[in-house]
């Protein structure tokens, strides 16, 4: 596991969902090495799907940008040490309330 406290960069999630995301990231880092970003993302995504319904997407890494459309109340971007995690439920429906976040860059190692 990476040492250090999670630092939330951007979110519109309820506090309880934020805590779920942080807890799952911590658990994933207990199971996987920090270099196994795909496995960490898969774990967090599948657990969030199980806990909060399907449609979640997760990106994990040390250096990435993003531009996503997400459902209202379903976005969090945070860092633990040098590892950045973006978790959101995607939204493609034109009638859904949408938010756009561009160029969220992970902390560089």
How does this model look, in words?
By secondary structure, the protein is α+β, with helices and mostly antiparallel strands. It is built from two helices and five strands; from the N terminus they run βααββββ. Strands 1, 2, 3, 4 and 5 form a five-stranded antiparallel β-sheet that branches. A hairpin with a 2-residue loop joins strand 3 and strand 4. Helix 1 runs antiparallel to helix 2. It is globular and about 30 Å long.
Main β-sheet description = 5 strands, antiparallel
The residue fraction in helices comes out at: 25-40%
Oligomer: single chain
Looking at the structure, what is the overall shape? Answer: globular
Structural class: alpha+beta
Cα separation of the termini: 16 Å
Beta-strand content estimate: 35-45%
| Number of extended strands | 5
Compute the gyration radius: what is it? 13 Å
Number of helices: 2
Give the key terms:
single chain; 30% helix; alpha+beta; disordered C terminus; five-stranded antiparallel sheet; 109 residues
Topology:
Layout: E1 6-11, H1 15-31, H2 37-52, E2 56-61, E3 67-80, E4 83-90, E5 98-102
Antiparallel strand pairs: 1-3, 2-4, 3-4, 3-5
Helix pairs in contact: 1-2
Question: Could you write a compact summary of the structure shown?
Answer:
With 109 residues, this protein is α+β, with helices and mostly antiparallel strands. It has helices spanning 15-31, 37-52; strands spanning 6-11, 56-61, 67-80, 83-90, 98-102.
């Amino acid at each position: 596991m990476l040492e250090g406290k999670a630092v939330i960069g951007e979110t519109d999630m309820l506090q309880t969902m934020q805590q779920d995301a942080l807890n799952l990231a911590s658990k994933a880092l207990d199971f996987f090495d920090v270099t196994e970003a795909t496995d960490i993302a898969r774990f967090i995504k599948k657990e969030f799907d199980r806990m909060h319904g399907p449609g979640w997407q997760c990106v994990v890494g040390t250096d990435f940008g993003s531009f996503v459309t997400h459902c209202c109340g379903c976005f969090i971007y945070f860092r633990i040490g040098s590892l950045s995690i973006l978790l959101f439920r995607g939204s493609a429906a034109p009638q859904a309330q949408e938010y756009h976040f561009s160029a969220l860059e992970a902390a560089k190692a």
